[in-house]
């Protein structure tokens, strides 16, 4: 599994912690930036990393801003992305089991490093339950399709 990493300045510090943790777990990643604490705009990084997932260059993503809110909103504008902002382990587990989330969003200014690592581990290891949840994921994709075809008119 190859992970796309993205952050703004608010998530930069935690992104480095998560990179070290992924190294420990032996999980490959591509870091789409940002690469310093200089102020930047989170949609730019969400877009680059989300595109890599949609092109199949990476499998899933971990996106981090100050709260995780902005970067998850931006990521969810990319068709096919299901970004889940998780502040606890239960949400991380359910975002995989029920929502088949392909992006985990974290708030670098909200949660502690050890909790973030536990959330990441749970999220990486938990599979999608499938079954009735497949239908709901399909309905989300249908909503996207409706709006994409509206724009093409
Ligand atoms: C940047 O100051 C901050 O607004 C950003 O990291 C994020 O929290 C937005 O949702």
UniProtKB/TrEMBL annotation:
List the catalytic residues.
Answer: 65 (proton acceptor), 98 (proton donor)
Q: Which residues form the signal peptide?
A: none
Any Gene Ontology biological process:
carbohydrate metabolic process
Q: Which GO terms describe its molecular function?
A: intramolecular oxidoreductase activity, interconverting aldoses and ketoses
Binding site residues for D-ribulose 5-phosphate = 8-9, 66-70, 99, 109, 132, 136
Does the keyword Isomerase belong to this entry? Answer: yes
Keywords, alphabetical? Isomerase
Q: Which family does it belong to?
A: Belongs to the LacAB/RpiB family.
Q: Give the protein name, as stated in the record.
A: Ribose 5-phosphate isomerase B
């Amino acid at each position: 599994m190859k992970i796309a990493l993205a952050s703004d300045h608010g998530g930069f510090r935690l992104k480095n912690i998560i990179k070290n943790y992924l190294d420990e777990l032996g999980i490959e990643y591509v870091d789409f930036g940002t690469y310093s604490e200089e102020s930047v705009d989170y949609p730019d990084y969400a877009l680059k990393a989300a595109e890599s997932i949609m092109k199949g260059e990476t499998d899933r993503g971990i996106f981090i801003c100050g709260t995780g809110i902005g970067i998850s909103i931006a990521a969810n504008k990319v068709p096919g992305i299901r970004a889940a902002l998780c502040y606890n382990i239960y949400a991380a587990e359910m975002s995989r089991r029920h929502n088949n989330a392909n992006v985990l969003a974290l708030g670098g200014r909200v949660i502690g490093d050890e909790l973030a690592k536990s959330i990441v581990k749970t999220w990486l290891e938990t599979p999608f339950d499938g079954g009735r949840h497949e239908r709901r994921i399909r309905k989300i994709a249908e909503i996207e399709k409706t709006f994409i075809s509206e724009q093409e008119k």
